[in-house]
Amino acid sequence: MTASLPRASVRETLAVTAGVLAPMLAQGVIVRRPAMTVLADRLQTDRRAAAILRGLRDRHGAGPVLLRIPGRDLAVVLDAGDVDRLLAGAPHPFTPANREKRSALRHVQPFGVLISDDAGRTVRRPWNEDVLDHGADLHRLHERLVRVVEEETDALAAEPVLTWDRFHQVFWRIVRRVALGDPARDDERVTELMTLLRAQANWAFLRPRSTRRLRELGRRLQAYVADADPLSLAGVVARTPAAPGTAPVGQIPHWLFAFDAAGIAAYRALALLAAHPDVLAAVREEDPADQRGLRPLARASVLESVRLWPTTMVILRDSVEDTEWAGRRARAGTGFAVASSFFHRDEENLPWADRFEPEIWLDGRAEASRALVPFSAGPARCPGRTLVLDLTSELVAAVVRDRGLTLSGPRRLDGGAPLPRTLAHTRLEFRG
Ligand code: HEM
Fold first, then answer.
1. Considering its fold, how many domains does the chain have in total?
2. Domain of residue 28, residue span
3. CA triplet 49, 55, 57: central angle to 5 degrees?
């Protein structure tokens, strides 16, 4: 009989719990808690987390290591090859509808593909790919979203200071128009409902579901699809055939939830550009007419933003059958956790781990590093990637075109020092 995965000691388990998992939970896995994000930045929690995981790898080897958590087999993944294998193996033998994710996300998107069982995933995944134009260079709503971004960012040009709160407000107007249509531009109740439901989701199984809020959200989304603005995702939803069991409107809460990450990624990309004037100048010069409508460098800057500070802090999977890892066995039902920033900032293997190096997304280096997974990988890879990069690259380009961009908050990202491992976006501020 094969031995089971190596087990962390009690002391190591406590270190991982306190130094890796607790900071993620405290910052809020589903919606960020601003005060905790600032604290995590002060303490640079991701640096400490990486040191703990490196120690675990040094002592136990590269294979996954099981934590000693009563009632739950949870293994931390420590090797880039294992990340690849785990993500390639969705949904069998590694289901994305993992136990912790199900208990958190049921609060806000009970019909979402990410937490669906096999039958649900079979119809919902291709439908999401279809509506979101997964794998395309640009989303079919590209021209529309360029116009929306231009209209909504116009006001920012004349404002001397750009803060996160202001950016967030403008960003959500853009998202509501692109996702739900022009009539939703000022429907702040939709965004508020999402925030309230996500705050509950942060507490996962400790909190009951608010069916009242979920129903209110569902009614509003249904209304936007029923009377759809044709130039919005709601319009695409209304036109796209759906197999029985798809729950088309039930997919939208995940999109709205995930757009928040896109806003954070774009705002941090602005900070990176502000601190790297040469790249900023090149982004300003970029002409999509020469690039089949794309903005490669603006995109690469957003990708660097999510590499350096992954918005999905941990990728979770559960195995649905026994699996073998270099001669060791993990029982069916074992959870696997990939702490993204551990791999994205692996200074032992990535010479540019702590630098802003957008070229890696253009010259094949990022693709060759199998554990750079800001949008996950494999069959459950983010189907919103095309739309996210389309929208955020246009947004970044519009902001830098229209205004000066000097980073003026407490954080400095220039001067050649290694970039901070944890970055509170809420504290970043720009002057013209
Ligand atoms: C910066 C922005 C975003 C990032 C970094 C991101 C990243 C990710 C990651 C890492 C996953 C896999 C999660 C897991 O396995 O647990 C995922 C899944 C997913 N994302 Fe995104 N996402 C972003 C925005 C979006 C947006 C805006 C949409 C929709 C409009 C979207 C749609 C989805 C869907 C539907 C899934 C579930 C896929 C499945 O279960 O097969 N994402 N995303």
1. 1
2. 10-329+380-431
3. 105
Residues 381 and 389: their CA atoms lie apart, in Å, by: 14
122 lines ligand 1 (CB under 6 A): no
- Rounded-to-integer distance, Cα 76 and Cα 203, Å: 22
Burial string for 278-299 (b: 16+ CB within 10 Å, else e) reads ebbeebeebebeeeeebbbbbb
Pocket test for ligand 1, best of 103, 382, 395 (most atoms within 8 A of CB): 382
How far does residue 382's CA lie from ligand 1's centre (Å)? 4
What spacing in Å lies between the alpha carbon of 329 and ligand 1's midpoint?
30
CATH number (domain holding residue 77): 1.10.630.10
Hey, whose CA ends up nearest to atom 28 of ligand 1?
A: 384
Tokens describing residue 35: 């005060």
Q: What pLDDT sits at residue 1?
A: 54
Domain membership flag for residue 358? no
Exposure of 418 by Cβ count < 10 A (0-12 exposed, 13-18 middle, 19+ buried)?
A: exposed
Instruction: Please choose, from the candidates 374, 404, 364, the residue with its C-alpha nearest in 3D space to the C-alpha of residue 314.
Output: 374
Measure 3 CA to ligand 1 centroid, in angstroms. Answer: 35
The residue with tokens 């009614």 is 219
Contact 37, 266 (CB under 8 A): no
The helix/strand/coil state of 69 is strand
Q: How far apart are CA 268 and CA 276, in angstroms?
A: 12
Residue 372 lies in a domain: no
State how far the Cα of 385 lies from the Cα of 393, in Å rounded to an integer: 12
* Nearest residue (CA) to ligand 1, atom 19: 382
CA 72, 78, 82, 88 torsion-angle sign: positive
> Ligand 1: which residue has its CA nearest to atom 1?
262
Residue range 4-63, pLDDT digits in tens: 999 999 999 999 999 998 888 878 767 778 888 888 888 899 999 999 999 999 999 999
The model's pLDDT over 180-203, given as tens digits with 9 standing for 90+, comes to: 999 999 999 999 999 988 888 777
